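[step 3/7] fold_predict: job queued, chain A
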Amino acid sequence: MSKVDFVAESGQQTTVITQIFDAPRDLVWKIYTDPKLLSKWWGPKILETNIEQMEVKTGGSWRVVQKDTEGNEFAFHGVYHDVKPYNLTRTMEWEGMPGHVLLETVKMEEINGKTKVTDINVFQSVEDRDGMVETGMKRGVDESYERFVMLLKEFKAKS
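[step 4/7] structure written:
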């Protein structure tokens, strides 16, 4: 696995996350959009992730609830604004801080049998973006993609 490229430029209200996976785009898309698989890789590894709703279609909604070892819950939800093969745009809002919505665009590009995923998050303000980064967003992304790679390896071992 290549290193996750996480960019959060000072004074900007965006993050840009880029990762190249050693797998075909169809498989990366499946792991990204299948609720049964998303629960196995999304978020920090210390949290249990439950997918309560995930309609991966334009206009569909989603809701994810994560629990820590003490039973505390952290819920996120949003709406898919545009879903096309290998590209999606959705909103995300942490229910612990309502009213702070980000717009996320994920694009997948196949390059010589590998898949480059570019995830652009646009926050409502620089303060919102900085707050998310300060909560450990990069660590969460790193851990998520580590588990994503483990799922890819499981699929490759079965084929």
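[step 5/7] annotate
Residues 137-158 form the longest helix (22 residues).
The beta strands are 5-7, 14-21, 48-54, 61-67, 73-84, 87-94, 101-111, 114-122.
exit 0
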